[in-house]
């Protein structure tokens, strides 16, 4: 990995210029620079671009904000009220490793709270199903793959692994948990100079500007969310 890191560092400016100016497809980048899709290199590339440690910049505010987010979800009305209630009910019935489940529930409910479409963000399939049936048409998101013998698709003990999907392709699999998957997906957006998908632009803006703090200028919807989050101590 030290050798890979040194070579990736050496050609960073050339790689960055090509990605920004030519905007190649994800499949082409995957062929040309497969190391860019390793977990360590996603974090390294994010640091090369922003001078920010991706994981600590994401996980530190997540630790702080998770209880506040859960509190906001409990009083949220509107179109996604029932979906948030279902998500919170699942958290309520967890009896082990509650903190880890809370940290996973907080980002999972974010698209719902921002009035966006989570089905475009986190999808679930059984390990006996062809993955391409679920990744087709998925510009950007997380695929949760679980065992085929479970009673409910939301049973974490039966979780096999999480995979990151970009432009219909699984680009990284065996990710350990949802918060890590979200952080790495955000890192890939920067590494590949991608735009946020329209149906999830506010969710990713929250990660960028509220969690990681890369830009203080927020849209009206995200600023409203930020104000509520800071007031919910």
Describe the secondary-structure layout.
Blueprint: H1 2-10, H2 12-22, H3 26-32, H4 39-50, H5 54-74, H6 81-92, H7 98-108, H8 110-113, E1 122-126, H9 132-135, E2 140-146, E3 159-166, E4 169-175, H10 178-191, H11 201-211, H12 220-231
Parallel strand pairs: 1-2
Antiparallel strand pairs: 2-3, 3-4
Helix pairs in contact: 4-10, 5-7, 5-10, 11-12
Helical residues, percent: 40-55%
Q: How would a textbook summarize the main sheet?
A: 4 strands, mixed
SSE order, as H and E? Answer: HHHHHHHHEHEEEHHH
DSSP strand tally: 4
What's the overall average pLDDT, rounded? 87
**Beginning-to-end CA distance, first to last residue:** 42 Å
Domain module tally: 1
Strand content: 5-15%
Question: What structural class do the secondary elements suggest?
Answer: alpha+beta
Q: Cα-atom Rg, whole angstroms?
A: 18 Å
The total count of helices amounts to 12
Strand order of the largest sheet: 1-2-3-4
| Gross morphology | globular
Provide the low-confidence segments as ranges.
150-155
